[in-house]
Amino acid sequence: MDVVTGAQVAVAVTVRLARERMWELITAVDRIGEWSPEALDGAWDGGADGPGPVSGDRFTACNRFADGSLGAVTCVVTEAERPSAFAWTVLDGAGLVGSAWRYELRDGDEPGSTRVRHSFTHGPGVTGARIAAEADPEALNRRLVTLCRNMTTTITAMASPVSTASTANADTANGAF
C-alpha cells in the first residue's frame, strides 16, 4: 500500500507585508537560501526574463537534508497568478512528480498584512521521503513535521524586517523603485 503519494501538510501564517510584496519574495527563488533551513539555493533555468514567473518556467534548487546530504532538483512552475498564488512541482530523476508545493496569498485582517498558506503534497515520484518511509513507516510522519516547521520558518524569515530591508536596499542600488 502506498502511504506516501498524497501525503500532505500545510501551514498558514499572517505577515505584516502587502500581498504584492510577499509575492515578490515567494517568487524570488534565487533568494530562498536566505530564509529556508533546508533549501540552500535556487536559480531560474534560462534566467529570469519578463515581469515574473509563468506556468511552465523551470528552476533548479539545492536542498540540504537532515542527514547532511545535498540534492539538486528540477522544479516546474504550475501556477503563477500575481499576487495570489505560486505553485510548482519537483521532479524526480525519471521526470515524475516527487512533490507539489503551493503558496496562496490572501489579504490579512489588518491593512497591509497577508495571510500566507504554504502547502506540500507528495507525488508518485521517488524522493528521499518515499525511500525512508519504505524502510521505516514513521519516517514519513517525522518528515511531514519537519516540513511544517521549515515552511513556517521560511515564511517568517521572508517577511522579517531585515529580509525586506535588504531587498529594498538592493532595488534602490540597482535603480529600481
From TrEMBL:
Pfam families: Polyketide_cyc2. It comes from the Bacteria. Gene3D superfamilies: 3.30.530.20. This is SRPBCC family protein.
